Amino acid sequence: MDDQEETIENCRLHVESLLARKGHSGLQETSYPSRSLNFLKRLQGTPQRFDNVPNYTHDASSQTALPKEATIKLKTIIAGAGLGGLATAIALRRRGHEVTVFEKATELGEVGAGIQVPPNSRRLLMRWGLGPYLEGKAVEPEAIHLRRWQDGKVISLTKLVPDFEEKFGAPYYVVHRANLQLAMYELALSLGVCVRVNAGVRCYNAEGSGVVLENGEVHHADLIVAADGIRSEARRVVLEERDQPPQQCGYAAYRAMVDVDLMRADPELSWLLDVPGQNLW
Ligand SMILES: Cc1cc2nc3c(=O)[nH]c(=O)nc-3n(C[C@H](O)[C@H](O)[C@H](O)COP(=O)(O)OP(=O)(O)OC[C@H]3O[C@@H](n4cnc5c(N)ncnc54)[C@H](O)[C@@H]3O)c2cc1C
């Protein structure tokens, strides 16, 4: 039994034990009005493939070795093409699942600022084949300096180069969120993921395992992944009254992007650009 089969088997046993606790005797009698776990029933018979799953094609020059294809191919809908949604799309597609991502925004834009990609995430992203798509867009800071805000004196230093690559097998990267999102988007497309922008999910049909888009289109899938961010609608559908929406905590965080040419021209700031680095005051 490989990792995936073991995961599915554990999932099946878990569902069966939940059903048993509720007095049901098998997967045929789901205790909730959902078809989302139908694929588990298929596992009880001979493994079979879903119809209409497109051929898995990829550009060998830009992808790293693909993992073993999934035994059962799922038709998957992902709501949200943020970092979470696109990462999930890539991971699922690499196993051969059919993936459609619905994104509310009219385009994938310039939202956000620097995203730190530590070695553990970077190793994963590179294994997925993101390297060529990030070419020239990521910065490898030499160190993280924590500085006293009154006078800029260094009070803590974390050396990143070469320490992180030596210790953790990959460097520490910083990349603009928009570049990371675009790179993931391009990789997802190259793998055969369908990404539709201006296609917000209006509501989720828990009974029919489907979604209704803002334009009225209805789509069904074996698996629906909600990656619709901090104000997630889907979370409310799953958690119902237990959902805890974001709370105002009374703090505010501001951030800004500054043109590097302006920094270079300012004697008080130009030294920050001498070597790539992270400075926190
Ligand atoms: C200031 C700051 C700094 C951060 N720094 C880092 C860092 O250094 N490293 C790091 O790893 N993480 C960092 N994070 C966290 C990281 O940015 C988030 O965890 C991550 O972006 C969340 O991704 P997501 O896909 O879950 O949500 P989002 O990026 O919010 O994406 C959600 C997407 O869903 C779409 N959407 C919403 N509703 C719908 C709908 N109904 N239908 C369809 N689409 C919908 C939205 O338009 C959006 O595109 C930082 C976060 C902040 C705020």
Molecular structure report:
- The structure is a single chain.
- The protein has 281 residues and is α/β, with parallel strands linked by helices.
- The protein folds into 2 domains: 1-48, no CATH class; 61-143 and 156-243, FAD/NAD(P)-binding domain.
- 30% of the residues lie in helices and 19% in strands.
- The protein is built from 9 helices and 13 strands.
- The protein has helices at 3-21, 38-44, 83-94, 119-127, 131-134, 163-168, 177-191, 233-239, 260-264, and strands spanning 75-79, 98-102, 114-117, 138-139, 143-147, 154-159, 173-176, 194-196, 201-205, 210-213, 218-220, 223-226, 278-280.
- Strands 8-2-1-12 form a 4-stranded parallel beta sheet.
- The longest helix has 19 residues, at 3-21.
- The model is unreliable at 24-33 and 46-62 (pLDDT under 50).
- Flavin-adenine dinucleotide binds at residues 79-85, 102-105, 115-116, 200-201, 227-230, 233, 255.
- Residues 79-85, 102-105, 115-116, 200-201, 227-230, 233, 255 line the site of flavin-adenine dinucleotide.
- Residues 74-243 form the FAD-binding domain.
- Belongs to the paxM FAD-dependent monooxygenase family.
